[in-house]
Amino acid sequence: MNKLYIEGNKKLNGNVLISGSKNAALPILFMTILTKEKIEISNIPKLTDISIAIKILRSLGIKIVNKNKTLYIDPSVINISCPSYNLTNKIRASIWMLSPLLTRFGKAKIFFPGGCKIGCRPINLHLKGLIELGAKIVENENYIIASIQKPLQGKYIYMEKVSVGATITIMSAAILARGLTIIDNAAKEPEIIDVAKFLNTLGANITGSGSNKIYIKGVLKLHGGFHKIIPDRIETGTFLIAAAISQGLITCYNTEPKHLTNVLKKLSETGAKIQTGKDWIKLDMKEKKPKSVNISTSPYPGFPTDMQSQFTLLNSISSGKSVIIENIFENRFSYVTELIKMGAKIEIKNNYIICKGIPKLYAKNLFSTDLRGSATLILAGCIAKGITVVNNIHHFKRGYESFLKKLNKLGANIQYINNNFSIF
Ligand code: UD1
Hints:
Subcellular location: Cytoplasm
Number of domains: 2
Strand content: 15-25%
Domain Enolpyruvate transferase: 7-407
Distance between the termini: 18 Å
Protein name: UDP-N-acetylglucosamine 1-carboxyvinyltransferase
Strand order of the largest sheet: 21-22-1-23
CATH superfamily of the largest domain: Enolpyruvate transferase domain
CATH architecture of the largest domain: Alpha-beta prism
Bound molecules: uridine-diphosphate-N-acetylglucosamine
Helix content: 25-40%
Function: Cell wall formation. Adds enolpyruvyl to UDP-N-acetylglucosamine.
GO molecular function: UDP-N-acetylglucosamine 1-carboxyvinyltransferase activity
């Protein structure tokens, strides 16, 4: 069951229900370490990254019951403060345990986090923030030990680079610190707002999330509470691309159009007809050939790096020539060589690519190397001429709930095949 067999020449049409945001759910799960009272979190997406996060929390002693995408969490007892290497090295998000464990126990040891290989992905800004608030950090080749002698002390912190992950680490460290922390040049992603909203529900005092300055007044204790995870904006964008590349019509429900303003603007430029309602987005590309668009990724509200590969696919079969610049991660074009195999006319320069649209992609035996790239290759298979095989399929399961089921319902024909099967 480790390859996909994808029939091409499909038009993708219909309705799709968007799941909860992976990138909001992951930090929120780790923030539950900050309280000893019961928490309920709904709209949890069913993904391998989330299962790993739940396993990590359970390995610490936290009790979690999972019913219909709602987690009932009892974090009153934590027996160990160093989760195993075999779990933490699987997900980047495990870095978000460091500050809650430090705050709760005064000491925490975690192994370096894993995640997609899309760049060197340092954690210096997370650690620097913790040091500024008063933590002592000792690093060796494999792990980090953080410790404090007295409660962390609130401070003005200027982030030298906009980082989603480091903003969340510092925000979580400041919740139970003494005094006021100001995070300047903070990341403004909707996921940051969702984490802040969750923490405020538990009694934290955070204002300004979603702007570039976040103010956190330390409180003495957090209590329990209920939170619903926001919809996944990247999953939404990926399904809208599915409609655009196949000249189809797809409506995404249970989503938040406001979180995709820049993505929708670019999709309109391609010629797609877009309509939005309170919680839905419809993209209609029927009977139209898309026009290619230039993209330059940047922190929110700019164009998301997590939508870069899907737009490259769109440009590769659109009319015209385009440039896509990647400004966030230094190694995020590995999927491009696979699209080139399919016939795409793309030149890779340093941090940008030049793409000349062609009428059709051709099915090939493809290898995915990261989460968003793998979703892109699966979509490419749906519209290519012939039968595409995608290998290394564990990637897409990390970030797309029921991806194949949802695509097949829209008209795709994607099946699992075993290793011995060959069509070439
Ligand atoms: C998060 C998202 C990821 C998204 C990215 C940018 C999760 C689980 N992942 O990743 O899907 O693509 O935001 O929107 O939420 N950096 C440093 N030092 C640090 C931290 C980051 O130099 O300590 C750099 C990174 O290498 C990168 C840039 O800052 O060049 C932005 O990274 P960051 O926003 O932190 O991304 P992640 O939180 O890892």
